[in-house]
Amino acid sequence: MVLINLRHLTPHSLLRHSPLLPKQLPSLKTRCFSAAMTTAAMSTSTKKVLVPIANGSEPMEAVITIDVLRRSGADVTVASVEKQLRVDACHAVKIVADALISDCSNTVFDLITLPGGMPGATNLKDCGILESMVKKQAADGRPYAAVCASPAVALGSWGLLKGLKATCYPAFMEQLAPACATTVESRVQQDGKVVTSRGPGTTMEFAVTLVEQLYGKEKAEEVLGPLVMRPNHGDEYTITEFNPMQWTFDNCPQILVPIADGSEEMEAVMIIDILRRAKANVVVASVGDKLEILASRKVKLVADMLLDEAAKLSFDLIVLPGGLGGAQAFANSEKLVNMLKKQRESNRPYGAICASPALVLEPNGLLKGKKATAFPAMCDKLSAQSEVDNRVVVDGNLITSRGPGTSMEFALAIVEKFFGRNKALELAKVMLFCRM
Questions:
Q1: Is 354 a catalytic residue?
Q2: 86 versus 75: which is more confidently predicted?
Q3: Which one of 90, 127, 354, 379 is the catalytic residue?
């Protein structure tokens, strides 16, 4: 089990590298702006955002939205609609909110945005306090949004999509018509103050759209760069592979995902979520002396076990999320480095994303003779740089990738190596990462 404790984040700056071209931003959504869109929405002042969560919420959708909005400087409050702060999200991820929804009922938010997941969307819908808050948000002309099942199950049932263009997860599209919404199949749809989106694979685009809605296009483009998002949203993903070899396992792939203070929560949660969707046994291990770690955007993750305990086990794959602080902690862990070296020596798969290839694998000789990539700002630390522009690189038993925006491709490539491309594409389509 993974326990996530989400706290308030104060605005902070980011490294700004490899920004996408400005012309790519409009492709993130289909716009239908109303006259109500004012210059006030483009203000650079700190915006207050509410992300309600419930038992059965989709953790990728929640964490990606929180992470991206906090990157923009937004003050994000995560509120549980349950009787306790902790909720049981999908795929064995546990989330502990900042507050109960009742604590937030009198707060004015610049945006309220709902993650999806089932039965999470239903549990959000059934929360009377949240319903009143979102209805008041709409009546006051302030933005509200939802992704996956929540546009139909929550917003639609509350009558808040009447006369608007909206989208949602394909299985719930028929529920939009009774809500008097005009259904569209856009990956992200904005109609005036309301933004809707389709699923886990569209959530990063959705979150960047919310940043633009709150702060304007320039801020959205600033946030886009470090995400390393792909410009061809919905296309079938590709990987670059050298020295192909079969990745094997006995009954079920045993996969270790270490985490540490400063790990990138989007990358960690996407890897964990997607690999668990594929029915791999994912063990999350803390490299510190406590199960709980403070991730890069102030999301607290609690591991399944300490690394000392995990070191007694055998894994078919060890895969490192990125995040500058997390990668440095991995590099400082002699136990983890030794586990990675033994993994390589036994010709078993290992991998890393973002800062970790450059800060963990390279200094310890784990990239020697291998093709690899890393976060754009870290690629100059790699001894071999011929393949660094590729989003996912597999070389025999090694897999590396670039950053948050490549995490789904990275995780799907792991699924492909263990279970085959058909299984990976099936998951990609279910998540709406690739077109169905």
A1: yes
A2: 75
A3: 354
